[in-house]
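Project channel, design review

CF: Before we commit to the Miscanthus lutarioriparius constructs, I'd like one complete example in the thread so the newer folks can see what an input/output pair looks like. Taking (+)-neomenthol dehydrogenase.
RD: sounds good, go ahead.
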Amino acid sequence: MVISVDGSKRKEAARERREQRRREVTLLWALPYEPHQRWLDRLAPRAVAVVTGANRGIGIEAARQLAYHGLHVVLASRDAAKGQEAAGRILAEAPDEASVSVESWQLDVADAASVQAFAAWAVETHGGIHVLVNNAGVNFNKGADNSVEFAEQVLKTNYCGTKRMIDAMIPLMKHSPYGARIVNVSSRLGRADGRRNRIGIASLRDQLLNDDRLSEQLIDEMITKFLEQVKQGTWSSNEWPKIYTDYSISKLAVNVYTRLMARRLSDRPEGQKIYINCFCPGWVKTAMTGWEGNISAEEGADTGVWLALLPQEPPTNGKFFAERCEISF
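CF: and here is what came back for (+)-neomenthol dehydrogenase:
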């Protein structure tokens, strides 16, 4: 393949912009939150955070960082033994001066009974939670692959599991003057109007980007239509995202559902506010990417932790972020 000089320059410029932003975020990351910004320090007992899919990758890093900030973190994992091991690692690797509080619990977000059992345990044990990080997800594509063989499982876990957790945890969100937080781990691959991976059905794309027309029914109908086409072998990359199609659609659903839920939650009274946002961690070196990413899990988790700890004023709600910057849907 021949790459033009202009194309090479554009790629180099884009690479430099990414590196510059990474340097900026690294500096921000190193700065401590000011005392007046740390709403979590004004709660007694400790604020409680739940991180799903927390036994590895971005999940364990988000759990670690939240625990080091002083929250009590529940590492929720489908594999109970791996969750316990991950919690043990966080405790063992904590700085001597850190007062770290973590525990693990078994949870399969794709199983309604498992989610309900987890919710009952969270109420009984902690009386509710303050922060939910929806990280659990699957992707069966690697490298140049774009198989939709496991599309139903991908959507069941990534979107339906996320929605199920939100529905189950909202009644458990503890009331406070600072608001509870929901952070959904998503992807730029799920942007409806992304430059490379956009939805090709113009009418659907327009509806997904229009808050007045966006609905849960619209999202569910999109998923049903895609899965039917997969089953029939008639799906087309001209209509659906070209890269990691099933994964991208699952994250598109998460993105637009985040906006929808922000609108639904916006009229809650003071003291009962819930702020919900989503973020793209980037291409992270984890098992999900086959360790082919270009940033560490520690870097990838940063924006999600930042969103979870943002001060309540001014409110940030229904937004999409990457590298601590708001990006388009």
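RD: helpful, thanks. The chain has one domain: 17-191+251-327.
CF: The first strand starts at residue 48 and ends at 52.
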